[in-house]
Write a structure and sequence with these properties.
Layout lengths: L11 H12 L3 H11 L17 E5 L10 E6 L5 E5 L4 E5 L10 E6 L8 E4 L2 E5 L3 E6 L9 E7 L10 E6 L5 E5 L2 E3 L4 E3 L7 E5 L5 E6 L6 E4 L5 E5 L8 E5 L36 H4 L11 E3 L8 E6 L13 E5 L4 E10 L2 E10 L6 E6 L5 E6 L11 E8 L7 E7 L2 E6 L5 H4 L6 E7 L9 E14 L5 E7 L5 E6 L15 E6 L17 H8 L6 H5 L23 E8 L3 E3 L2 E5 L3 E7 L9 E3 L4 H9 L17 E4 L8 E7 L5 E6 L10 E7 L1
Helix pairs in contact: 1-2
This protein binds copper (II) ion.
Copper (II) ion binds next to loops.
Length: 693
């Protein structure tokens, strides 16, 4: 039942109360209140629709004592769910669909495994991928517990903590695919392939024969098939990986991280390039791929900090409409931001490319695995230990259920020879949608470099020169100047309205344009006031980057990296601060005298980017959220927002890097906070900066 369209001209407080009631399933009661005060009006005034109106999140109860840090998930033929955990257990969860009064029940099927991060079901057996092997678990005596743990195939381990292993993914021919994470060296500050096949995808036959498939993986925690049976994997930002991304993976591909190439002379390798063959120039990956034949550009980039920070499970919508209007699109989880993105791919000139949109946020923990339940709802298996997440729970299992209502969304974006075609889930207001000024398009890229991550580079605005809206109002064909191959294009359509006046549920998408398709261009003349001039002015790189990162003139410098000339000695107090795995500062408490001269030496001895930021008491989350809103500019601005609440800061440090900053402690005593403002980190990566008299 819909009540929101009637909710007009009531007080804000009443509206909030009504919303809460309707979310609580007491819409009938809300309806009565509405009838008494309702006045018909335009939908401009209506409460904006939210994700929860279309996709509901339901938490599964987990029995006390079960630490369900989900590493892998599979749906069994009877509708039960099998889950393996990072603690090494496998649980079978019956009645997971939480309907009526029937509660899920949990039964332990196996235990003692070595951090299994993937699980699959095939022909009556459960398979898990432990750190060093694929293991088949079989219940021989039918008592509901595995009694045979059989190795299918094993690979070397060095013992490095970062050597995660994922899978298996069963191919139609019965072979299994696994992906192996690189190790991480704190002393080198980058990923390392210490033993064979780290950073590779391997294919293994049921009788244990192994073939190396592809190299260049860094942290390939999710992979799966699309409807055509092609395999895609998700990658996490890091060394050689400027931002999260999804790549089509085929035999002989090199996917980007050079470390794994040290094993290309082993028998069976389909590649023959070596790490030193990969140029570390900081150009876009797409440009380097023109010179390095095996290097395959991603199908879709997920802009870091905006659409996730740690890409995880990937799931193709093969529910035939049971999950809504996005058949054959991918859903992609994010560990750090506890949310799911939606990806629509197309094949242009033999290569995949496509668009990614926001889809659903607000999960209770860090998403690692996504699967379909027997009824076409989605299960999300989650864990946060060691990797912070927006969802505060340490672990969890949630169901995402389509309510049956279709959200007004950009369903997909397709590349055109001269622009893009946006397809909507519902008809648009054709007049508004035909106005070029309701769309903004900006192209940008990332550096392909051995360093960790990348700022956004080469961002330039594009000009929407004309729009043709289809008769049925479902498609808008945009003619765009300034699109670039190999670039990510941010497409916003904030001003578009549905035929009934409502705004888009999400008005932004990011299209990775690897190739322009061939075909006819639309004949749209340049506007009278010369789009050429507009192009020329907008084609300049957005605001000089180094200048943007410096404090504005007239404000107190918040990052001073040389001892101020007025100080007669190095400092009153020098504090060394490091980082620890699991998003922690070391130490977690600092004590200084009010007004004293402080030198902080911040050393990032972790495996990801961090900064050190001192903020006013109680404002760490607020400042962190402001940093997140820097969007595409976040990394180049060191995730430092302009606000009086932020007192002092370092730059954003690479793994292994050190920076000292000098400042005078506040005169006002109190418990200030030091925080890392990297998106997803700031919720937990905090310490107390105690200022005493
Ligand atoms: Cu951090």
């Amino acid at each position: 039942m819909r009540i929101k369209s009637h909710l007009i001209h009531l007080t804000k407080a009443t509206l909030v109360a009504l919303c809460l009631l309707s979310l609580g399933g007491q819409a009938g009661m809300a309806q009565e209140n509405v009838e008494t005060g309702s006045i018909p009006t335009t939908s401009e005034d209506a409460i904006p629709e939210v994700e929860d109106d279309f996709y509901k999140l339901i938490s599964l109860p987990i029995p006390e004592g079960v630490i369900l840090e989900v590493g892998g998930l599979a749906t069994l033929p009877d509708g039960s769910i099998a889950a393996c955990t990072r603690r090494g257990e496998v649980w079978i969860i019956s009645n997971p669909n939480v309907s009526g009064n029937i509660k899920p029940t949990y039964r332990r099927f196996a235990y003692g495994l070595h951090e299994p991060l993937g699980l699959a079901y095939k022909d009556g057996d459960i398979y898990v991928t432990q750190r060093s092997e694929i293991t088949r678990l079989r219940d021989m005596d039918g008592d509901g517990e595995a009694d045979a743990y059989d190795k299918v195939y094993s690979w070397p381990l060095s013992g490095n903590y970062h050597e995660y292993s994922y899978g298996p993914l069963f191919k139609p021919n019965g072979n299994m695919l696994v992906t192996l994470n690189l190790g991480w060296s704190n002393s080198l500050g980058h990923g390392v392939s210490l033993v064979p096949w780290r950073g590779w995808m391997l294919e293994i036959t049921p009788d244990g024969q192994m073939t190396p498939v592809a190299a260049g993986l860094r942290s390939p925690s999710g992979f799966g098939f699309n409807e055509a049976g092609d395999v895609f994997y998700t990658e996490n930002q890091g060394d050689w990986v400027g931002s999260g991304r999804i790549s089509h993976i085929e035999k002989g591909d090199f996917l980007g991280n050079a470390e794994s190439l040290r094993w290309t002379d082993l028998p069976g390798s389909p590649l023959n390039i070596k790490p030193q063959d990969i140029p570390n120039t900081g150009e876009p990956l797409y440009d380097v791929a023109k010179r390095v034949e095996a290097l395959k550009p991603p199908a879709v980039w997920l802009p870091h900090g905006i659409l996730g920070i740690s890409t995880s499970g990937i799931l193709n919508d093969n529910t035939n409409g049971k999950f809504g209007p996005f058949s054959n699109q991918f859903f992609v989880g994010d560990q750090g931001q506890s949310k799911i993105m939606r990806v629509a791919l197309e094949k242009v000139k033999g290569q995949y490319q496509g668009v990614v949109f926001p889809f659903r946020e607000g999960f209770s923990s860090g998403i690692l695995r996504l699967i379909w339940g027997s009824d076409g709802a989605m299960f999300s298996g989650m864990t946060s230990r060691g990797w912070s997440s927006t969802g505060k729970e340490l672990f969890g299992l949630q169901r995402l259920v389509w309510t049956g209502r279709t959200p007004f969304e950009m369903k997909t974006v397709r590349a055109m020879p001269d622009g893009f075609e946006i397809e909507f889930t519902q008809p648009v207001n054709r007049t508004l949608a035909a106005d070029p000024s309701v769309y903004q398009i900006t192209g940008f890229n990332y550096k392909y470099q051995a360093e960790y991550g990348s700022p956004v580079i080469n961002n330039e605005k594009c000009t929407v020169r004309g729009v043709v809206v289809s008769e049925d109002g479902l498609k808008a064909r945009l003619v765009v100047d300034g699109l670039r191959e190999g670039y990510i294009h941010e497409i916003t359509a904030e001003g578009v309205r549905g035929a009934d006046g409502k705004p888009l549920l999400h008005h932004v998408g990011y299209y990775t344009l690897n190739q322009f398709p061939d075909g006819e261009k639309l004949a749209i003349a340049a506007p009278a006031h010369s789009s050429h001039a507009a192009m020329a002015s907008s084609a300049k790189p957005a605001a000089t980057k180094s200048a943007a990162a410096k404090p504005a003139a007239g404000t107190m410098a918040k990052r001073i990296t040389k001892r101020p000339a007025s100080w007669t000695k190095e400092s009153d107090i020098t504090i060394n601060v490091g980082t620890k795995p699991g998003l922690k500062f070391d130490p977690s408490q600092i004590r200084v005298k009010a007004g004293s001269k402080v030198k902080v030496v911040f050393h990032n001895n972790d495996d990801m980017l961090h900064n050190f930021v001192v903020v006013l008491p109680g404002t760490a989350i607020e400042v962190g959220e402001m940093a997140m809103k820097l969007g595409l500019e976040g990394q180049e601005k060191d995730y430092i927002p302009q606000t009086d609440k932020l007192l002092y800061h370092t730059k954003l440090l690479q793994p292994g890097e050190t920076e000292a900053i000098y400042f005078e402690a506040p005169d006002e005593p109190g418990d200030y906070t030091f925080v890392c403002t990297v998106p997803g980190h700031f919720y937990v990566m905090q310490g107390t900066f105690k200022v005493v008299q």
